[in-house]
Amino acid sequence: MLDTAGRGTLAATPDLGTRVASVAEFDVPGVTPVFARLVPGDLRTVAELAEAGMLKVRVARTFPLEQAAEAQRALADGHAPGRIVLLP
Length: 88
Description:
Strand order of the largest sheet: 1-2-3
Low-confidence stretches: none
Helix content: 25-40%
Shape: globular
Number of helices: 2
Radius of gyration: 14 Å
Strand content: 15-25%
């Protein structure tokens, strides 16, 4: 699992029995910190890992684009155990 949210997400996540890495939290026991530059080569590598099914993203909730304001409120609330996703 790759955590990009931070804000206590990993502490609130039950043990999934998977390897966990984070670009947002570095002081959680058992979590490998990941440092990535936002450069094309790094982004391609992440995309390749995702396409190969090697990254798992926990989705807390999806919203249609028309409910973007509600999605932002859910994100600001900070209690979602995963990503908030907007759908076209």
